[in-house]
Amino acid sequence: MSVPESPEESLQRVWSTVAAALDDGFGGTDVLALVGEVSTRLLPVDGVSVSLVGGARTRETLYASDGVSDRIQRLQCSLGEGPSFEAYEARRPVLVSDLAADRGSRWPVFASEIGTYPVGAVFAFPLQRGAIGIGGLDLYRSEPGWLSAEEVTTALRIVDIATLALLALRVDSLNGEWVVSLPRERAQVHQATGMLISGLGVPAEQALAKLRAHAFAVGRMVDEIADDLVSGRLVPADIEL
Amino acid sequence: MNDSLPSGTRRESDLVGAFVQLADTLVDDYDVPEVLHQLAAHCVDLLNVSAAGLMLSDQRGSLQLVASSNERTRVLELFQIQTDEGPCVDSFQTGVVVVVADLSVATERWPVFTPQALEQGFSAVHAVPLRLRGEVIGSLNLFNQRPGGLSAEDAKVARALADIATIGILQERTIRHGEVLTEQLQGALNSRITIEQAKGLLAQAGGLDMEQAFQALRRYARSRHARMSETAHALASGQLRPDAVLEQGHADAM
Prior knowledge:
The structure holds 2 protein chains of 2 kinds.
Chain A: H1 7-23, H2 28-42, E1 47-53, E2 59-64, H3 67-79, H4 83-90, E3 94-96, H5 99-102, H6 108-114, E4 121-129, E5 132-141, H7 149-169, H8 176-180, H9 187-200, H10 204-217, H11 222-230, H12 236-239
Antiparallel strand pairs in A: 1-2, 1-5, 3-4, 4-5
Helix pairs in contact in A: 1-2, 1-7, 2-7, 3-6, 9-10, 9-11, 10-11
Chain B: H1 7-27, H2 32-46, E1 51-57, E2 63-68, H3 73-81, H4 87-94, E3 98-100, H5 113-119, E4 124-132, E5 135-144, H6 152-170, H7 179-206, H8 210-223, H9 228-236, H10 242-253
Antiparallel strand pairs in B: 1-2, 1-5, 3-4, 4-5
């Protein structure tokens, strides 16, 4: 390898690899390991984990790059508190660049227990789409410190990939097609998701999955199907396969 | 409401009213999408423009709409186009105000945005960057059906409203480097997605268009002193029945 890969190229490659892996029916851990690998390579972090959140605060770690990442998750699960829980509930990232300075304020027990591990900073990102809360991506650094603007962008793009991977892994008969072809989601996609929640009486996550599956089945873009729903050219019953 | 006053005095009184209301909101526990919606509505009244919208950086290189004075699908499209090109993107990238007094000569500058804006009857468009210290975190977009620039006085008011939006996004939370900014921006962007989901849900359940659905959502949240984004989340996650929100709308209409 003569020319090192740029961050942009790395992200693109992981994006396509994740999509292809999903297409080939690889298990979730293989796909998430790719996400984990790119996180620790492109960001100044020492570990990463990806968790799936079910109802009633059940959190399952699907991937952890190292023992400390795993410990951060286990500790929160046993205590029922910590940055990852807060990020999921507040539906926004919880970014603590100096855990020692933050100690005791928001999650006193977690902060005190994690003090015995080499964790200087924790960045907890929720994996979500509006009201669809699906899991979390958690990064840690052994030393305190925040990310540069470029690194924030990279982290958020990794979060996007992880969100899609988890959404895809939760849907049967996955197809890489809709992962790869995902453009920036337009408002109509979210509105159409809402219409299906009401029209088909399904939870938000299933509504989005049905919208995507339908688009794939009829060979059209998710955006176009969403437009048709919003403008009344399609009704929710048409989406039910 | 102050019809008996001379126009200069009336305008001053409207300005004071708007800034007092925004300041009152910001010292309380408030909802970012709600404050930004109020702010967009104030822009329309105070600056005498036809529509106003606030777009925030998604920190991935694009802008996303978080609040608009008008929730009609066609108008939202005009903001959506600007994830790629348009006055908002230009003001976001350069950090300066973009004033286009006559949109009909701007087709070359924004080949996708301009024809759509003209087709919707807009003749002038302005964009004011949302600035935070050395950084630009978004843009306030003003559309007008009449051609013409912003007067020096209006430009100052627009600048002040953009500053209030920045303060509103950062909430009361102190700025520890960039972390809070990322937390707030990403939180606000996700709230907007939730609001879109709730709009779709209400539109379907109540046979409403997206503007009416937004108004029903907002009215219900306000009547209960609830955050609009929390109400949207409760709806989209199945914890609140759409009937409850729609019935409130009927009650208000009587």
